[in-house]
Specification:
Elements (H helix, E strand, L loop, with lengths): L3 E3 L19 E5 L2 E10 L4 E6 L4 E6 L4 E5 L4 E4 L14 E5 L9 E10 L2 E12 L2 E10 L14 E3 L4 E6 L17 E6 L20 E4 L4 E7 L4 E6 L6 E6 L36 E3 L5 E6 L12 E5 L4 E7 L5 E7 L7 E6 L5 E5 L3 E6 L1
């Protein structure tokens, strides 16, 4: 598969700031389509995961702990009770929230978060129901085997395939050998049924010495997962070291190389990480970012509001503070890139598409914003 390697800033949009600064509005254009960005709320802390419950209510988690619902019509926040006690240390905390296909009021909501296990953090997949303003019936579907003594690389994002399966990611937990160790969940994308059971067609079911929840491995710190329903494909974006962030097309049982393969450098010097960037039997990325953008999320755009974006991947960038739009061809190859919202100067954390096809995103400054025509 052909790869797109990005090695420079690409700013194709032209922006103008509004006269009324209090409105916090940014205007621009992408692929011939004008848009505007509006600030809706200050969510408090870092809004880490977001999901629409319906056309009016946006549920979000805070990395530091706690969750709330934003009413997008009147821009009011409602705090939720019943959230878990998370280990909010280092990069850990209350992470993603996701609503499965066909959700209706009272149905299951899915969360990833970091649990304190004997003083070490582990990524947990749970589900709960929303009853008025209280999260009830908590179930821990998988407490991952991922404990280390670091506070790094927990992941974690959630995606659904619409066929009764859930995928979620776990970082290598700051311990590089985990990427190639199939007896740990760290450094992997995992696949479960919605009730937490293991699908019998997972690639490593029945294999000795391999955790059966693993769908793919060899990942460093995946902080974006997105399902392409039209093609039945799972997309992932992950942090490389110093350089070498990757977009990957995830295959069942695929080994994505970390830490044997990498496009990045060591933090302590100008030396390559790993043994190279290609090897037979290991999957190559669809796109590589040099320098790193530090991705915080990933979305496969399927809406009607921006027709030219349909079938594109959109990632939130932390370090390089923008929205990163990647065009794909019919073969799933990355063929072009656009960097949006650079003037905002915000670390973009979470992304979600609204029912009408608008983009809602959060930033590490605590803001929740939307991008609409």
């Amino acid at each position: 598969m052909r790869r797109l390697i990005s090695s420079c800033f690409i700013a194709a949009a032209i922006y103008s700031l509004p006269v009324t600064a209090a409105e916090l509005v940014l205007e621009g254009e992408s692929a011939g389509m004008p848009f505007r960005v509006e600030a809706l709320a200050q969510g408090g802390g870092v809004p880490w995961g977001m999901a629409f419950l319906d056309q009016q209510r946006l549920l979000f988690t805070r990395r530091e702990g706690g969750a709330a619902i934003l009413n997008i019509d009147n821009e009011t926040l409602t705090e939720l009770t019943g959230t878990p006690r998370v280990m909010a240390e280092g990069q850990g905390g209350f992470l993603d929230v996701a609503v499965p296909p066909g959700y209706s009021a009272g149905g299951w909501l899915y969360f990833t978060w970091v649990k304190n296990q004997s003083g070490q953090g582990v990524t947990v997949l749970s589900r709960a129901r929303l009853q008025d303003t209280h999260l009830v019936d908590w179930q821990e579907l998988l407490v991952t085997r991922s404990a280390t003594d670091t506070g790094r690389h927990f992941g974690s994002r959630i995606a659904f395939d619409g066929s009764g399966h859930l995928y979620f990611s776990v970082g290598d937990r700051g311990h590089r050998p985990n990427g190639q160790d199939l007896q740990t969940h760290a450094g992997s994308v995992l696949r479960l049924n919605l009730d937490g059971s293991i699908p019998p067609d997972n690639p490593f079911v029945g294999r000795d010495g391999v955790l059966p929840e693993i769908w793919s491995y060899g990942h460093r710190n995946p902080q974006g997962l997105a399902w392409d329903a039209g093609h039945g494909r799972l997309w992932e974006i992950e942090h490389g070291p110093r350089g070498g962030d990757e977009i990957n097309l995830i295959k069942a049982g695929g080994n994505y190389g970390w830490p044997v393969l990498s496009y990045g450098k060591e933090y302590w010097g100008p030396f390559d990480v790993g043994e190279g960037s290609e090897r037979e039997g290991m999957e190559s990325p669809v796109k590589v970012y040099i320098p790193s953008i530090a991705p915080g999320s990933l979305l496969y755009y399927s809406g009607d509001a921006f027709p030219a974006w349909r079938g594109n991947l959109i990632a939130g960038a932390l370090k390089l503070t923008h929205l990163n739009r990647v065009e794909l061809n019919d073969k799933g190859e990355a063929v072009a890139e656009e960097r949006l919202l650079l003037p905002l100067g915000e670390r973009v954390r979470a992304l979600v598409q609204s029912p009408e096809g608008w983009l809602y995103f959060s930033t590490d400054s605590g803001r929740i914003l939307r991008l609409r025509p």
